Structures are given as structure tokens and as C-alpha cells.
Amino acid sequence: MTVALVTGITGQDGTFLRQRLLREGVEVHGMVRPGDGLARDLSSAHPEVVLHEVDLSDGPALRGLICEVDPDEVYHLAGVSSVGFSWQEPVLTGLLSGLAAAEIFAAAWQLQEQRGRAVRVVQASSAEIFGQPRVSPQDEQTEIRPVSPYGAAKAYAHHMAHVYRGRGLHVAACILFNHESPLRPPSFVTRKITQAAARIARDGRGELVLGNLDARRDWGWAPDYVDAIVRAARHVVADDFVVATGRTHSVEDFVAAAFSRAGIDDWSAHVSTDPAFVRPVDATEQVGDAAKAHRELGWSPTVDFRTMVARMVDHDRQLLEGEA
Ligand code: GDP
């Protein structure tokens, strides 16, 4: 039986990955932050998932965990997930989204040496490593020049994936562009918008305050991205893969699509902007070229922008109906 260790198992991607691996009959171990309330819910709903409380900043504990679990596959998803937050906590972001990955690669490499069998690792890399890209679309060869603490931490981890790949570890780096679902927390702009659209549609009034409406992102459907991660882990060679839809939309496009789905024609009456939500530096446009993932992993996105927005808005409307 395949044994998988998932860091960040209570997050959006960790949840979809856990569901997928359990369906496949994989023995799933999840690393959770000590005191994580979501871990308690997960362990009562899915006692078959073995949870391990380890702090990502605790190197010896991370190494001990990898030895103890003895995994065939390691999916490293944990870290600071919000670019906005990384500006408030740049050092913590470096620790959790950068250095911890190096600890995991080193421990996986050591385990592989000891037991003589591959440990397949996936690093959840990010489009933020490209910062303000000078080429469009971005692919695996695009220059790495981050412009946020989050991007810099992820860039370090991305480079370390290459370092350990050079040393013989099967470590794939999936350069994930934005990927959303109803499980996204409202600290991300997509869920903030869909929650607001649902609330304003119900109440007939209300306001949504945002930052930069012109920023353009390549937004995809999170379960598709988890599928790419699993394909990358099991691919014959460890490599870098951009995972993206190849289409870009502005924050304003997202607002218009979400409000329209909620039945509100004039979104502009409800939306204002506040510099408090504008980042010190923000990529103007991100759009990925996933041709390599398509060619080598047989991966393609299955959900388009409008369908993704509709699913998120419908979910938030249902949640509000449930409350009522
Ligand atoms: P990110 O691309 O990983 O940082 O994902 P986010 O969903 O946090 O942000 C996507 C884009 O939306 C960025 O360009 C943000 O600057 C922009 N944005 C505009 N208003 C907001 C807001 O109120 N909250 C967030 N999180 N992002 C916003």
C-alpha cells in the first residue's frame, strides 16, 4: 500500500488531495499545526487519516516525522498561503514557506538513502516566484524574480527542490497559478467576492471593499490543480510543471461574474476600493503556459472561469440559506 504524507492537510488543496488519496486506497498521513481546530474536525470525520501535530518551524520534529511515517509520497503544501499576509510577517513567511521545504527535502533524501527506495516529493511552488513577469505567458523557463516576501520564500524552496533533485531526490515542483474553490478562505479575493455577492443578493444591500481591481490572475479550479500535483509526483521523471489555465481575468472581471451569478446586474453600486487592501507591490498580470504539464502529465484544466465562479457563488448562497 502506498503511504503518503501531506503537509497542510487541513487547507484547501490538502482537503482535495486527502479525498483523492483515500479514494485510491492510499494510507494518508497528515501533518497539522499544534492546536489546529480543523484537525479535530478532520480526525473525527476521517479517523483513517493519521494526523501528526508538528510545527513547520521545528526542524528536528519535521525530520523525525518523515522517518516515522516512512512515506512513498510527500506532498508539501503547508506554509503561509497568503501573499497579503506575507507582507505583515516576512520572516515567518521565509521560515514556513521557504526553509521548512529544505528541511523536508533533506529528510526525504536521507530516508531514501537509508532504505534504498525512492521518496517522491512534490513542492507546491507558486506563480509568485515570477514576481512582475517580463514575458507572457509564464512557463518553466521564465525568470524567477519575486516581488513579495511570499514569492521570495517560495523561490528559495523552488531552488532547493532543484538542489535536491540534483542530489537524486525525486522532487517535482508544481508552479501553481491561483486555484480556487468554495474551500478558499476569504483572505483570498475570490472568496471575499463570492461571499459578499451572496450576502448582498440576500439582503438587497451591502458593500464590498477591495484593493486593486485591475490586477489580472490566471484562476483555475483547485481540484484540477491537485490532480496535476498527484500526476507530477508519480511521473517517471521529477521535473518542474507550470499548472495554469492559460487564461487571465481581472479582479473586476471576477466581481462582475460573481455579482451577475448572484443576480445583481450593477455591481458597481456595491463595490468600493480602499488603499488598505492594495499591496506594496503586486503583480499586474499572471498567466501560465501549462503546455508541458499537458504534454508530459496528460493534464488539462476541466473547469472554466465562469463555471468556477458560479460554483463558488452558489455554494456561498447555499451557506447563507442554511444559516437562515
Ligand atoms: P494571490 O494572487 O495569491 O495574492 O491571491 P489573492 O486572492 O490574495 O489576490 C489576488 C489579486 O487580487 C491580487 O492582485 C490582489 O492585490 C488583488 N486584490 C484586490 N483586492 C483584494 C482584496 O481585497 N483582498 C485580496 N486578498 N486581494 C485583493
From TrEMBL:
Positions of the NAD(P)-binding domain: 5-312
Any single Pfam family the record assigns to this protein: GDP_Man_Dehyd
Gene3D superfamilies: NAD(P)-binding Rossmann-like Domain (3.40.50.720), UDP-galactose 4-epimerase, domain 1 (3.90.25.10)
Swiss-Prot/TrEMBL keywords: Lyase
Transmembrane segments annotated in the record for this chain: none
Co-factor(s): NADP(+)
UniProt KW Cell wall biogenesis/degradation keyword: no
CDD domains xrefs: GDP_MD_SDR_e
Single annotated GO MF: GDP-mannose 4,6-dehydratase activity
Signal peptide region: none
EC id: 4.2.1.47
Family affiliation: Belongs to the NAD(P)-dependent epimerase/dehydratase family. GDP-mannose 4,6-dehydratase subfamily.
Protein name: GDP-mannose 4,6-dehydratase
Source organism per UniProt: Cellulomonas chengniuliangii
Upper taxonomic lineage: Bacteria, Bacillati, Actinomycetota, Actinomycetes, Micrococcales
